[in-house]
Amino acid sequence: MRSTIILLLAGIIVPTAVTVAQTRPAPTESHATFDGGDRPLPGPVYEESAFSRAVARGTRTRTGRPGPGNWVQHARYQIDASLDPSAARLTGRESVVYQNNSPDTLRRVAVYLRQNAFAAGSARRDPLPVTGGVALSRVEADGTKLSAIPQTDSTSPGTRLEGTVLWIRLPIPLAPSDSVRLEFDWSFTPPPSPSDGRQGRESDVYFLGYWYPQMAVYDDVSGWVTDPYLGVAEFYMDPADYDVRLKVPKGWVVGATGTLEDSSSVLSRRTLDRLAQARRGRDVVHVISPDEVGKGGALVTRGKRLWHFTAAGVRDFAWGAGNHYAWDAAIALVADSARGATDTIMISSFFRISAAAAAWQVGGARFTRDAIERMSAWLWPYPWPQMTSMEGVLASGGMEYPMMTLMQSWSDTLSLAGDLMHETGHMWFPMQVGSNETRHPWMDEGLTQFDVAQGMRPLYGEPRIGGRPTDSEQGQRDLYLTAARAGRDATLMQWGDLFPEDLYFISFYDKTAQVLVALRGLLGEERFHRALREYGKSWIGRHPDPVDFFNTFDRVSGRDLSWFWVSWFYQAWPLDQAVADVRQDGDSATITIEDRGLAPMPVRLAVTRAGGGVERVEIPVERWLENRRSASVRVRGSPDIVRVEIDPEAAFPDLDRSNQLWERAADSTH
Ligand SMILES: [Zn+2]
After folding, report:
1. Secondary structure E strands in 4-65
2. How confident is the model at residue 27, as a pLDDT?
3. Structural domain boundaries of the chain?
4. Is the peptide bond before 194 cis (omega within 30 degrees of 0)?
5. Ligand 1 centre and the CA of 513: distance in Å?
6. What is the pLDDT of residues 217-234, one digit of tens each?
7. pLDDT for the residue 301
8. Class assignment of domain 577-663?
9. Which of 222, 176, 225, 239 is nearest to 60 (CA)?
10. Cβ proximity of 252 and 267 under 8 Å
11. 3-state secondary structure 532-554
12. 8: pLDDT confidence band, cut at 50, 70 and 90?
């Protein structure tokens, strides 16, 4: 998700400094001398005890890779749903076969009813419209009807509703390797736009996200994870297979996760021909052109209005429908070097014709195609057969679903390109790499924010004029540093719902992206990129923990980066290195650096001499880990030093660049 919000930089958060005693190797460089000075020192990263137990059981390792016994649960959904816009009601019948791949016998299972966030009296983090939530008229487990049981009953099979989570105590405990069939009849009123910024309805458009009873995650570290959906923090889902039949009013088109089956039963010959034409080249084809919108010629007018979609190995299913959509299509070409083949990904873009949505006519399909191609090249090949982007319902920003994105009505093309790059970027994190978004928002939003800048730069350059600042590395840095300079830095290791909300975007998106830029600067482009891809590919279809990310980078870099993880993820320590003094002393010169911030980082110096020669010198991070505030380095005294600059490549997000540069005064003579 990425919304455009106005940030109120009010109030001060004082970073909490924790000093942890530790042993570090003694300095070996004889050319450096140091002053003392107290500072907070980053200790080791302590894994949680639940993670340690998972390592002991063999489902996790300390290398960043899954353990040999790693497992994830799996579900197969069959859903029939019918949309009645005249009553603003969606009604569904659902069957879920839930496969227990864990070694545990499950006496109860948890199912999310996230539409209950819109029920009167539900806990929520933001104001939300009240719709009444989900009406459940039938719950069955393997054919046994279940009803609500009282809080005091701890043995009978039945259901217990806790806000957005429905607990089901099974008639027969679910053994390892066994499965249970759950059935639900349900209905609800989709929330009016702008609802929670992820879904909802307008007069002629519905977008259904979080619309069906969905299994909660039971994982190898935490067991059942049933954090309530409160509106701000996001989601955590297992991979699953879907077979979905959607009945919509006559004349409405549907875009959805998955592949449209039996397309000739809903699409006219003309439309099928245009889709075939789109498959023959990379150019954008109008499937429903602007002058055909709302006329129904795209559809088979007689017969069924039942749209049938299937999708395998996705963590969710979303869909949108409307009777005023234009439809553009194209293909993306995705080279898969491992297979020695190029895949063609079908791209569809649905949007309404209006001045407010003008950018969609220019770039809805084109930017979606570009995003799939760029992200596939940067990370690894997009794995699914199609990708759909849809305009509507949202007041601001966009939202990601497997093979689907939903976005506001952009009029500015570069902003739409950036928004599509961001939401499409989520097809990797978290759609494939299934981290817990609720508890660790940086793992999907921060990584995606970083990836967006990598996707946008080759297409549109940096620096550039226009578009959203959040889509470039420089813009992300400005947003983070502006907050940090105002004392509004915050730790990344927080649950999304506990976060001061105006800092949600700054921290989990822009700060995290800048921390990754710093990590790239620290490790070098190639090693960083290799570690990022290795982390992601190791966890496709699985549930990585933050320490899996940290351990991958430690292993690939061959270094213990605990000091980096603690400083930048667990603490809110800003960076501020300054050139304190440059002193010529006979044959040698001494450069003194002060660390005025809290985050220890190596000091990368460019020393320029009279005549133009530039010498690179580095003060290693270990100097600061010896509890110092100032460090000196001795270099040759001639030719004269005319300029000293810290981090000339601006690899690190330093609070104050003005104190990183020393230049010899014009009247100084030697
Ligand atoms: Zn996002």
Report:
1. 32-35
2. 33
3. 72-266+304-320, 577-663
4. yes
5. 12
6. 999 999 999 999 999 999
7. 75
8. mainly beta
9. 222
10. no
11. HHHHHHHCCCCCCCHHHHHHHHH
12. very low
Residue for token digits 């001061």? 500
* Three-state secondary structure readout of 66-107: ECCCCCCCEEEEEEEEEEECCCCEEEEEEEEEEECCCCCCEE
CA atoms within 13 A on the CB side of 619: 34
Tell which phi-psi region holds residue 338, choosing left (phi > 0), alpha (psi between -120 and 50) or beta. Answer: alpha
Give residue 443's identity as a one-letter amino acid code: M
Share of the chain above pLDDT 90, in %: 86
Q: 208 C-alpha to center of ligand 1: Å? A: 18
Do the Cβ atoms of 384 and 316 come closer than 8 Å?
no
Cα of 117 to ligand 1 centre, how many Å? 21
pLDDT at 523 over 70: yes
Are 561 and 570 contacting, i.e. CB atoms less than 8 angstroms apart?
Answer: no
> CB under 8 Å to 280, separation ≥6 — which residues?
none
How far apart are the CA of 441 and the centre of ligand 1, in A? 9
Whether residue 67 has pLDDT greater than 80: yes
Q: How far is the CA of 638 from the centre of ligand 1 (A)?
A: 52
Distance (Å, whole) CA 289 – CA 549: 45
Neighbouring residues of the ion ligand 1, judged by CB less than 5 Å: 1-2, 445
pLDDT for the residue numbered 563: 98
Report CA(364)–ligand 1 centroid distance (Å): 18
Q: How far is the CA of 247 from the centre of ligand 1 (A)?
A: 30
- Picking from 644, 481, 627, the residue whose alpha carbon sits closest to that of residue 578 is 644
| CA 115 – CA 478 distance, rounded (Å) | 37
Three-state DSSP at 374 gives helix
Question: Strand, coil or helix: what is 285?
Answer: strand
Give the DSSP letter of residue 456: H
Q: Ligand 1 centre from 637 Cα, in Å?
A: 51
What gap in Å lies between CA 174 and CA 159, rounded to an integer?
16
CA of 447 to the centre of ligand 1 (A): 9
Q: Which amino acid is at 665?
A: A
Sequence length of the chain is 670
637 close to 584: Cβ distance less than 8 angstroms: yes
d(CA 78, CA 246): 11
pLDDT of residue 281: 85
The structural architecture, per CATH, of the domain 72-266+304-320 is Sandwich (2.60)
Ligand 1 centroid distance, CA of 265 (Å): 35
- Helices within 156-310 (DSSP H only): 269-280
In this prediction, residue 2 has a pLDDT band, given cuts at 50, 70 and 90, of low
Q: How far apart are CA 8 and CA 5, in angstroms?
A: 9
302 confidence band (pLDDT: 50, 70, 90): low
In the reported structure, the alpha carbon of residue 422 is separated from the centroid of ligand 1 by a whole-number distance in angstroms of: 6
Average pLDDT, integer, range 365-388: 97
By mean pLDDT, which of 43-47, 66-70, 301-305 is the weakest? 301-305
